[in-house]
UniProtKB/TrEMBL annotation:
Cited InterPro entries: DUF2086
Pfam short name (any one): Oxygenase-NA
Designated name of the protein: 2OG-Fe(II) oxygenase
Lineage of producing organism: Bacteria, Pseudomonadati, Pseudomonadota, Betaproteobacteria, Burkholderiales
Gene3D superfamilies, sorted: q2cbj1_9rhob like domain
Length: 236
């Protein structure tokens, strides 16, 4: 087992599952070391690693930019995705049942990707994001096709207070017949957050109902901020 896989295995998953059930998100402190964060951020300037680059302002997504990795994924990114998926599958399948959704996810990530590919979702979706002063990311959902894994992970690669100011990771929860609830997840360098991609089940007085989540990044006041995003379904 490599170091990253060992760290993922050592996470208190009962606490994470409870946080996801209660809030739709959970923080995982110290997933990557500073050296690992710097190595991951440095990939951004290696264009051969990526299949496409998106400048957010051109599409109304905010300001800043991101790049989707190409196949094969860098070994560090592939190891993270392979380590997280089996830990998240039981939560994802339990949520599907609670929300009355028929789809279930296989134990092996390779089998889920085969399902995506059979439906024409062939492009990798893990990505690196880079923000500068004044940049931000509008609230959104990373859906990409018919087959969507309901949880995803982000890892902050830069150090707040040293590399950048501002740039908080933000979630909003849209509840039926209620006003939206905002959440800010405090992340340090190397910390990760696991959160709902689209919907999560909530127990109400009349049974379980679905709430809709979106995520984004507040305006960076100064410096530069890099983030790694791990998405478990491929794109059309």
């Amino acid at each position: 087992m490599n170091a990253v896989a060992a760290r993922v295995a050592a996470i208190a998953w009962e606490r994470v599952e409870a946080g996801l059930d209660q809030e739709g998100a959970a923080v995982l402190p110290g997933l990557l070391t500073p050296a690992e964060c710097e190595a991951a951020a440095a990939l951004y300037d290696q264009p051969g690693r990526f299949r496409s680059r998106v400048v957010m302002a051109r599409h109304g997504f905010g300001r800043g930019e991101y790049q989707y990795f190409a196949h094969p994924l860098p070994a560090s990114v592939a190891a993270l995705r392979a380590s997280f998926y089996p830990r998240l599958v039981p939560i994802a399948n339990r949520w599907q049942g609670a929300m009355g959704l028929a789809a279930r996810f296989p134990d092996r990530h390779e089998d889920f990707l085969a399902r995506c590919h059979a439906a024409g979702q062939l492009r990798p979706t893990s990505l690196l994001l880079r923000y500068g002063q004044g940049d931000y990311n509008c609230l959104h959902q990373d859906l990409y096709g018919e087959h969507v894994f309901p949880l995803q992970v982000v890892v902050l690669l830069s150090a707040p207070g040293r590399d950048f100011e501002g740039g908080e990771f933000v979630l909003t929860e849209q509840r039926p017949r209620m006003q939206s609830r905002p959440m800010v997840l405090p992340l340090g360098q190397g910390d990760a957050a696991v959160f709902a991609v689209h919907q999560r089940p909530v127990q109400g007085t009349r049974g379980v109902y679905r709430v809709n989540l979106r995520h984004g990044v507040s305006r960076v006041r100064s410096g530069h901020r890099h983030t790694l995003g791990l998405i478990f379904h491929d794109a059309q």
